[in-house]
Structure formats: C-alpha cells, structure tokens
Amino acid sequence: MPFPPAGNPPERSGKLPEPSGTFPQTLGTIPQTPGSVPGTLGTVPGTLGTVPEAPGTFPRTFGNIPEHVQVKTGAIPRFKNYFKQENKMSRRKDYIPSTDADFNTFFKSICQYVNTKCGGTTPEWTQIPKEERDKLDQAYIDWYSAYGLTLKPHSTDVTKEKNRVREVTEKILRTFVQRFLRYPPVTDQDRDIMGVHNPDTTRTYHFDVKELVEFEIRLRAIRELDVRFWIKGASHKAKPQGYDGAVIIWDILDAKPANPEDLTRHSMASRSPHTLHFKESERGKTVYIALAWQNDRGHIGAWSEIEAAIIP
C-alpha cells in the first residue's frame, strides 16, 4: 500500500463514541496508589511487593509450609538444599560430625571425658598412657588454633589451613578411639556419653580377624619411610575385602622390644604403601615397626613380626 502524501493529515470523519456504562462491580476499582495489590497479598512497597507477613506461609491456595522448612518473612525456601542435606544425613553413618562447629564440640568433649576418667575416678582408666592423652590434647589445641581463626573475617588461606589441620587431627582422633575406646574398661555407657557409636555385635563374615600381615620397609626420601604391606601368603597385594586396613605401631628405641605392645606410636593405613614421617633430630636412629589387620568392626588381628629400619 502506498504511503499517504506529505502534509497535514486529513481530518477525521467523526468522533469517538462517549464511554457508556461502567466496569462490572465484580472487578472493583483500580487502586489509586501505584504499587498496591488486593489486601490478601499485603502491600507492595514501591513496585515489587513483599512476601505475606505470616512467617512460613504461602498464599491461601498453597497452604502452610511444613515446620521443618519454615523461613523468615521475605526469604525464599531453599528446598533443593534442604532435601540434599536430608539425603546426606540419612546416608551418613560416621560418628564424627561433619560441620566444624560440631566437630570442635565433639573433639573437646572426648578430651575432657578421657582426662576425667584417667584422673582418679572410679573405676579409673589405666589403659591409656599419659603420652597418648597428651598427644590427643595437643591435637585438639592444634585444631582449635586453626579453627578459631575462621570464626572472624579471614582469607581463603586461613580456611585452607583449617581444612588441612582438621584432616590431620581427625586421623589422630579416629586412631585414638579405635585403639583405646573400643574395649573394656570403657563401657557402652561411656561411649554413649562421648558420642562414639558402640560396636555392632551382629555376627558377620568379617567378625574375626584371621589374616596375618606381611610387610617390607623402603626408603622414600629424607626423613620418610614407606611401609608396604599385604596378606601373608597371598599372591596379590590387596588388603582383605571389607577391612579398614592395617594398624601400624612403631617406636624409636635403642633395642628391639620384646613384644609389639611396647611400641607406643601408631598409625592407621587404609592402603599400601603408607609413609611414616620423622623429625630431623630422629635421622640415623632405629625405628621398630609391627602391623596387624583391622576389620570393619574395629577388631584387630595378630601382630606381625617386629621389623627395624634406620631413619634416613
């Protein structure tokens, strides 16, 4: 269609009709104040509006939000994160808390309880050497020193260091629990108080540890030795199926001890090889080492022969 010629537009041939009638009463009137909506939803500040004043409720058509996901006024329920957390909690069987705050409380409580039971109470725990209690206390001090720095504004390096220290100190705590808190005189009630789960007494295939450990010691680097271990007499190097791994006990002594119980240091090795780290002042000294398998129930088998090595 061709465009009309330039110039003034032609006059209209008529007028628009006058409005007749009104809108139906069922629609009501348009609010004069911009930014407001019908009363059932509350007042909209500016142009966006707010979530209903009643915390944790949706408009009438949706009903109430369940108590476990109620939120404050103006917040949006994060259902995805909530259900993810629920699923994670339902799958997790570890007795050690996952959050740093809960882990700190748990760790501190165990240290305090152990020191109380070893400090003259009746019946007194005499099976835990003082140096092992001191090692556990020092691990907690190291943990809290790193954790405490994250309770105020901090850098990512502080967080990374806290995570590193937690990994180290959590291993020390786990080993302490496995070695000293699984057997009498520690009772089920003691473990309940400390928050440590009690052993499962249901008999299963790996209830008894019958396998023996065979191992060798190799030089890894300065101040480091690798301990390579396997099932004695087996053609493969894998640990027994379903086992936690091998408990390594060791000590730096002037002479070979009479039995493995005289070795006071220990590590839990979930896979082979396991590296032992030493101090500069320990170079040139002799370390004595023995191993035993530990099954998934926390039961430890017979100790191996004691082997010796010179710390590089």
Can you put this structure into words, describing what you see?
- This protein has 312 residues and is an alpha+beta fold.
- Among the domains are: 100-194, no CATH class; 213-310, Immunoglobulins (Immunoglobulin-like, Sandwich).
- It is built from 5 helices and 7 strands; from the N terminus they run H-H-H-H-H-E-E-E-E-E-E-E.
- It has helices spanning 79-91, 100-117, 130-148, 156-180, 188-194; strands at residues 213-221, 224-231, 245-252, 265-269, 274-277, 286-294, 307-310.
- Helix 3 (130-148) packs antiparallel against helix 4.
- It starts with 78 loop residues before the first helix and ends with a strand.
The helix/strand class is: alpha+beta
Give the helix proportion (percent range). Answer: 25-40%
CATH superfamily of the domain at 213-310: Immunoglobulins
What name does the CATH topology of the domain at 213-310 carry? Immunoglobulin-like
State the separation between the terminal residues, measured CA to CA. Answer: 97 Å
CATH class (first level) name of the domain at 213-310: Mainly Beta
Helix segment tally = 5
What would you say the CATH architecture of the domain at 213-310 is?
Sandwich
Care to give the gist of this entry?
The protein is 26% helix and 15% strand. The protein is of the alpha+beta class and 312 residues long.
List the main descriptive attributes of the protein structure presented here.
single chain, 312 residues, alpha+beta, Immunoglobulin-like, 4-stranded antiparallel β-sheet
